[in-house]
Amino acid sequence: MYSQVEHPAGGYKKLFETVEELSSPVTAHVTGRIPAWLKGSLLRCGPGLFEVGAEPFYHLFDGQALLHKFDFKEGHVTYHRRFVRTDAYVRAMTEKRIVITEFGTYAYPDPCKNIFSRFFSYFKGVEVTDNALVNVYPVGEDYYACTETNFITRINPETLETIKQVDLCKYVSVNGATAHPHVENDGTVYNIGNCFGKKFSLAYNIIRIPPLQADKEDPINKSEVVVQFPCSDRFKPSYVHSFGLTPNYIVFVETPVKINLFKFLSSWSLWGANYMDCFESNETMGVWVHVAEKKKGRLLNIKYRTSAFNLFHHINTYEDNGFLIVDLCTWKGNENACVAAPLPADTGKNLVTLPYTTATATLRSDETIWLEPEVIFSGPRHAFEFPQINYKKYGGKPYTYSYGLGLNHFVPDRLCKLNVQTRETWVWQEPDSYPSEPIFVSHPDALEEDDGVVLSIVISPGAGPKPAYLLILNAKDMSEVARAEVEMNIPVTFHGLFKRA
């Protein structure tokens, strides 16, 4: 007897349906009242094409990049979307098949080529995807859509047109870069990527892109490596998705999720694998936490260690009384927890003395400092992920509030606000509704940290004619302020930003 168990939120499948791009913006139907001060654009990235002809993409990170924009002007809202014209997308549309291997989908050789040409094509090297579906961020006066490879794609934030592809390898020594750079208020961009270090061993480089200067030269031309972190395994780099930054320190959390480069290179060439096939776990290493002085570009020779966990997103990192506090969204088993791990910046302090946390740091006989974190959010089968804060004012500084996407059995079905000091939470949730990462937008005259709104794209695939909408919440109590509905489905989006007018 066969029994199929359906997820309690079965409509989530709408998040993964292919949609068409729009030739021009459409007007959204607004209920409630858009705040008069909310002027600008919400830009978001995500997959929008989940198959090419009869060939499906097999992983959420593989669908072709779709760029979305909600414009706010004088209380009205419009919605626009266009596919990013990456090489992966253009070639797939031209050849009507998947041409470049993605994270979980292998691109088979052209069946029209003979066996000899297909065989030799395996040895031309790995063709890296430029499918920029993860995030969008500013560099100088320009905006780039990105994934986690060495390619970023410049886009026009007004028209959503694709301008050009940029290969970071041509400017700085990295083999890839995360989709979560830190952008400081003066426009300086920091990011991290894998690279080959001394004696061809692997390392992690922190790169810095300066703000736009008076000469108006593209800041990417002035990119530089500011510090290099060592790799715990010479030939197996850890997967890196984000990192921490304060006014004085850079924090890199190296997890046991490893990329086997030998497997990557050999299997890709000989029998055809995807990126996901080359991941493995080495939990015996635990987690290594690396710290560097930001201004001097100097690695601190302190060995921070803690027990194994997996990690995608940092919430915030800040300094307090000689300590570094690193708040993370961690994954360990089926439990998701945000942890606060104070790191003493002075090696003479071997115990945490901060009064507001139970986290500890103990100097061991092998000269490592063992960190025991404090869980600040946990729930059975629930996770607090895709965290956002009032980044412009509190990024890298002591803060109180984080906004996140609530995951139920890994399906997004709520929006959460977390007080990281008191652990108090606020929740927005509606039946059969699937929100995206919440973006905090501060009131221009805000006096308090949470004075503003939270924006999220919500998919509501019920029987109604408007299956998706832009939700606007009061950031203080997570109550609804307004929503802007569109008469079309919007697939899942990962990350984005609000660009003020």
TrEMBL record:
Q: Could you tell me the EC number(s) of this protein?
A: 3.1.1.64, 5.3.3.22
Relay the cofactor remark from the entry: Binds 1 Fe(2+) ion per subunit.
Q: Where mainly found?
A: membrane
User: Which keywords describe this protein according to UniProt?
Assistant: Cell membrane, Hydrolase, Iron, Isomerase, Lipoprotein, Membrane, Metal-binding, Palmitate, Sensory transduction, Vision
Under Gene Ontology molecular function, one entry of this record is: metal ion binding
Location comes to:
Cell membrane
**Topology term for the membrane:** Lipid-anchor
Q: Which Pfam families match?
A: RPE65 (PF03055)
CC terms in the record's Gene Ontology section? plasma membrane
Q: Where does Fe cation bind?
A: H180, H241, H313, H495
Its needed co-factors are:
Fe(2+)
* One GO term (biological process): visual perception
Catalytic activity annotation: all-trans-retinyl hexadecanoate + H2O = 11-cis-retinol + hexadecanoate + H(+); lutein = (3R,3'S)-zeaxanthin; an all-trans-retinyl ester + H2O = 11-cis-retinol + a fatty acid + H(+)
Into which family does the record put it?
Belongs to the carotenoid oxygenase family.
Give the protein's recorded name.
Answer: Retinoid isomerohydrolase
Annotated source species: Apteryx owenii (Little spotted kiwi)
What's the source species' lineage?
A: Eukaryota, Metazoa, Chordata, Craniata, Vertebrata
